[in-house]
Amino acid sequence: MRITIDIDAKVLERIQMATGQRKKSRAVNQALAEYLRSRERAKFIGRALGGKTDYSRSNEDLEEREVYEAQI
Q: How many helices (H) and strands (E) does the chain have?
C-alpha cells in the first residue's frame, strides 16, 4: 500500500542504520514490523506474568515433541 507521510530526516536515517536497510521503504516496513512484534511480545509477557495466559503444555509434553534440544 502506498501512502505519503512526513518523517524527520534524522529519524529516518537512524531507522535505516538500525535496520541495515538502504531503501527507505524497506527500512520503515522492517522497523514497523519489529515494533509490532515487540508490542505483541510485551503484551504476552504481561498476560503471562499476570496469570492470564493458560499454556497447557507441560515440560514432558514439550520434550516428547522434541521441541527442546540439548545444547552441547
A: 3, 0
CA angle 39, 40, 44 (to 5 degrees): 115
Joined grid coordinates for residue 18: 538500525
Handedness of CA 68, 38, 45, 53 (dihedral sign): negative
Rounded-to-integer distance, Cα 40 and Cα 34, Å? 10
% of the chain with per-residue pLDDT over 90: 57
pTM here?
0.67
pLDDT at 72: 47
22 neighbors 16 (Cβ within 8 angstroms): yes
15/32 Cα distance (integer angstroms): 10
Tell me the HSE value of 47 on the side-chain side, using a 13 A CA sphere: 10
